[in-house]
Amino acid sequence: MDTMRWQDDHLLLLDQTKLPLTEEYIECWDHIILCDAIKKLKVRGAPAIGAAAAFGVALAALNYTGEDRDEFAADVKKAIADLGKTRPTAVNLFWALRRMEAILEDIRTYSVKEQQERLVAEAKAIFDEDRAMNEQMGQYGLELIPESAGILTHCNAGALATAGFGTALGVIRAAHQAGKEISVFADETRPLLQGARLTAWELMQDGIPVTLITDSMAAYVMKQKLVDLVIVGADRITANGDVANKIGTYGVALAAKAHGIPFYVAAPVSTFDLSLESGLQIPIEERDTEEVRRVGDSITAPPGVPVYNPAFDVTPAELVTAFITDRGVFRPPYLETLRAMAETK
Ligand SMILES: CSC[C@H]1O[C@H](OP(=O)(O)O)[C@H](O)[C@@H]1O
User: Which GO BP annotation is one of this protein's (predicted)?
Assistant: First the structure.
């Protein structure tokens, strides 16, 4: 199963809202389809959103049929602006869009056709690099995973959230492939159930022992000493080590602290936003209130009941035991170590 597949002139995108029951791919021929898919979480997960947006920019470039460089650049920049308005929290989206826009800086040097080829190549590079970073992260994370460890994770930071292999689930996959006989507790992750629908599905596909629990069970499972470590993904990490991730992550981190359990965050360098000093500056997406009043098509709350639906929360750096990245494992104090990490190539 691939999150997305580039097909020379269009993108096949796995519709994650259909999982786990059906694997259905959407044919994407323009960036507007990608904007809709990102907004509706048909593709989701910080690195996957970045890669999908990059291919969206490539599609906008290919859809320009003229030869005027300035008109071409204006069309592509409009697509970049459209894609940048889809979801505010995952910094990988903006990191990828900046990489694509940087290709346009040589507009005078290359013909429109050459620019189209360069933009497609950059989108494919973003996608390929992400998968390689995840596999590298998995190897770095191995040192933190004891034999037969019980691991708790929240939401989905797996192959479905990336270009492949996954971040938090990438470390779990690497441990499983190394024969460590780990087992996983997956939080279902209300309201959109990425843990139940995606993480449980991914781990079962790989034959990795997984037990699905409700979000409210996480602390109790830790109290029963069934969890040796927690590992989650991230959507944006600031210079001081604060972490924006799926709503509920902060509560898991507090419970882990209370039970003396290590809390790890796995993320590629593209998830670090060192322009922000702390998590107070991270824009937190608020989503449609209907997502909380329903589970799928079933209404589970009084119609019109007031709802608060932030899609992410911020875990302060002091609750993070270490960051597992494609550049290595980083421990506190984060301000210095994360800046040094970002500067390494
Ligand atoms: C590997 S990043 C995955 C990250 O993204 C998820 O959010 P969403 O499903 O809303 O895109 C969640 O925060 C995961 O940890």
Answer: L-methionine salvage from methylthioadenosine
Choose one of 84, 109, 134: the last residue of a domain.
134
Both tokens assigned to 305 = 């009941």
Q: Band the pLDDT of 223: cuts 50, 70, 90.
A: very high
Taking a C-beta distance cutoff of 8 angstroms, is the pair 188, 210 a contact?
no
Cα dihedral 98→103→106→107 (10° resolution): -100
Q: What is the pLDDT of residues 184-202, one digit of tens each?
A: 999 999 999 999 999 999 9
The mean pLDDT value for 46-63 works out to 98
Q: Is 311 in the pocket of ligand 1 (CB under 6 A)?
A: yes
Q: Do residues 308 and 173 share a domain?
A: yes
Atom in ligand 1 nearest the alpha carbon of residue 271: 2
Which mutation among 44, 173, 198, 312 tests ligand 1's pocket best, with the greatest number of atoms within 8 A of CB? 44
**For every residue of the chain, which 3-state class applies, written as one string?**
CCCEEECCCCEEEECHHHCCCCCCEEEECCHHHHHHHHHCCCCCCHHHHHHHHHHHHHHHHHCCCCCCHHHHHHHHHHHHHHHHCCCCCCHHHHHHHHHHHHHHHHCCCCCHHHHHHHHHHHHHHHHHHHHHHHHHHHHHHHHHCCCCCEEEECCCCCHHHCCCCCCHHHHHHHHHHCCCCCEEEEECCCCCCHHHHHHHHHHHHCCCCEEEECHHHHHHHHHCCCCCEEEECCCEEECCCCEEEECCHHHHHHHHHHCCCCEEEECCHHHEECCCCCHHHCCCCECCCHHHHEECCEECCCCCCCCCCECEEEECHHHCCEEEECCEEECCCHHHHHHHHHHCC
Cα 241 to ligand 1 centre (Å)? 17
113 or 105, higher pLDDT: 113
Residue 49 CA: which ligand 1 atom is closest? 11
Q: Looking at the annotation, which residues are catalytic?
A: 235
Same domain? 71 vs 162: no
pTM for the full model? 0.97
Domain span including residue 68: 4-134
